[in-house]
Amino acid sequence: MSDIKYLETHEWYLINEEVITVGISDFAQNELGDIVYVTLPEIGQDFEKGAPVVEVEATKTVAEAYAPMDCTITEVNSQLETEPETINNDPCGDGWMFKAKVNAIDDSGMSYQEYETFVS
Amino acid sequence: MDKRTTQLHSYHESQNAKFIDFGDWSMPFSYEGTLKEHDVVRNSSGFFDVSHMGRLEIDYSELDKISSLICSDLINIPMNKALYSIFTNENGNALDDVIFWKFEDKIILIPNASNASKIKSHLVDHNVDFIDKSLETVLIAVQGPRTIELINDRFEIPEKFSTAKSDNFMYARTGYTGEDGIEIMASNAEAESLISFLIEKGIKPCGLGSRDTLRLEASLPLYGFELTEDITPVEASLSWTITNEHDFLGSDRIKTQLQDGNHKILKKFTIESRKIARTETIGMSSDIKGVVTSGNFSPILNKSIGFILFENKPPQNLIEFDIRGNLIEGNIVNKRFLS
C-alpha cells in the first residue's frame, strides 16, 4: 500500500493494488464548513480522470469531488448518507467517499508535504 | 481594496474565527462551525458582532420627514418600542429593511451594512438630519432562549420589541434569529468589557454563517437576496409592515398592488431532503416560474428550506426545482418554518 496522495482539487486517494480509496482533504472540509448532504455515485459507474463523482453540500456552498484517475466504482461509504458530518470529523479516515477499480493508473498526486505547501 | 473590519476584529482573530467578505466588510463567518453555533443560539445563547450595520441617531424634529420615506407607522408606535420597517423608493420598491429604536429623546435607525451609505444619501436627499454613530459604537446581538436569564444582572430587560438604555448602553429586545434576546449598542470604549461579560456568562461567539441559517429558519428576509430595489414589500410577502396610513414614497404603487393582487410574490418552501436549492435555482409551480432567493439546510427541520420569488401567484403548492440538472420536488409552505 502506498501513501495517501493529494490532488490540486483537494481530493485524497490511496492506491491499494488495483483499487483506490478517495475522499476530500482536511483543508477542503475545513473550507467547506458543515457538510450536510452528499450525492454518492452508483456501484459500477465508470468515471474518467477529472470527472465529478461526488456532490458535497455544505451550509456555505456546494462542491464536487473529482475522479483522481480513470476508474470504476466498487464501493461507496453509505454511512455518509445519514452522517455526512463524518467527512468534517475524519476526512481522511471514516469520511472516505468511494472505492474504485483503477482503469488507467495515474499516481501523479502530491505527497502530504507537497500538498501542505500547495494550500498554504 | 482592504476590507473594513469592526472594532472587535482582534477579538475575532484571537478566537480563530474564519472570516468572510460581506460587502465592504471582512466579518467572522464562524468560530467552531456554523451548525454548532446554530445549535447554541437555538438552545442556549450566542452573540454576534453586527457592528457592520449602520447606527444613525435621529431627532424627533425629523419624524414626519422620515415617516414619509417608510411603509410603517413610526409616528404612532409607543415610546420605547422597536419597529421593523422598509424604506421604499418612488416605485414602492425596497431600498432597505431597517430597525428603528424609539427612545424618549431620540430615534436610532439601524440600516443594513450593505445599504448604510445608500440610506444616508437618501436621508440627505430628503433633508432628514441625522448623526452617524457607526464609527464610535459597536452593535452586539445576543440571541437564544437562555439570553435573558444570563444577562439580567447587568441589563434591565425590556418587554419584547421594546427598547431600554443604561449609562453605557442603548439596547432593544430584538433580533434576527427567531429567538429571544437583545441587541446592544455600546461605545467603542465599552466594547471589550461587554464581550468579556458575555463570555464570562458562557455566551458563545457566533458568525455570519449561523446568522444566515438562523434567520432563514426563522423565515426572515435578507436584503440583497429576498429584498432588492426590484421588489415591493407586498411582493416580498411583508404586507404586515405596511401600517403607514399617510402617503409615503411609492405608496401609490403599493396600494394598487394590495388592491389588485396582480404581482410577483415571494414564498417559502421546503424540500424533503438535504439537497439544497441555492440562490438562483429555478423552480416551477405548474407553469409559473420562480427563482430561489435563499436556500439552505435547516438543522431543526433536518431538511432544505428557502425563499422563492414567483413571477405571479403560484397555482399549486408543489414546486419542481432544477438543481444542477436534477428535478427535485419541494412544497410551498404558508406558515413559518418554525412553529
Model description:
The complex is a heterodimer of chains A (120) and B (339). Chain A has a single domain, classed as RNA polymerase II/Efflux pump adaptor protein, barrel-sandwich hybrid domain (OB fold (Dihydrolipoamide Acetyltransferase, E2P), Beta Barrel), CATH 2.40.50. Chain A is 19% helix and 39% strand. Chain A is built from four helices and nine strands. Chain A has helices spanning 26-32, 79-82, 86-89, 112-119, and strands at 5-6, 11-16, 19-24, 35-39, 46-47, 52-58, 62-66, 70-76, 98-104. In chain A, β1 (5-6) and β2 (11-16) form a beta hairpin. The mean pLDDT of chain A is 95. Chain B has helices spanning 9-14, 34-43, 63-67, 116-125, 147-151, 188-200, 208-217, 251-260, and strands at residues 18-22, 25-30, 46-49, 56-58, 82-88, 94-102, 107-110, 131-132, 137-143, 163-165, 169-172, 181-187, 204-205, 265-271, 282-285, 288-298, 303-310, 318-323, 326-333. The longest helix of chain B is centred in the middle third of the chain and has 13 residues, at 188-200.
